[in-house]
Amino acid sequence: MSGRSGPPLGFAEALDLPLCVDLRTAARAFGICPATAYKLIRLGTFPCPVLRVGRRYRIPTAYLLRTLGIEERPVYAVPLEDDAAPAARPHDTHSRASEVPA
Known about the structure:
The chain is an alpha+beta fold. The protein has helices spanning about 10-15, 25-30, 35-45, 60-65, and strands spanning about 20, 50-55, 55-60. The chain has 4 helices and 3 strands.
């Protein structure tokens, strides 16, 4: 095996992962080559829990995301359009206690 198995995962791509991923996908998420991932598993130092299913390794996506620092999935994986954001108020409409009506 040589090099990485593709570009690192983006945020939106990481949120679209299935419940478990293969070792190559997990390696992409961590930005390491698959050979390094296999070595880390053999040494018992892979960054998150790994399941052995037959002859293959599977990594639960919840553990993968948690290790990457993604604790919660946002409601929207893609940013909302600018016109959907609430309009900012130009000034405060609340009266202050120090203001006296004239």
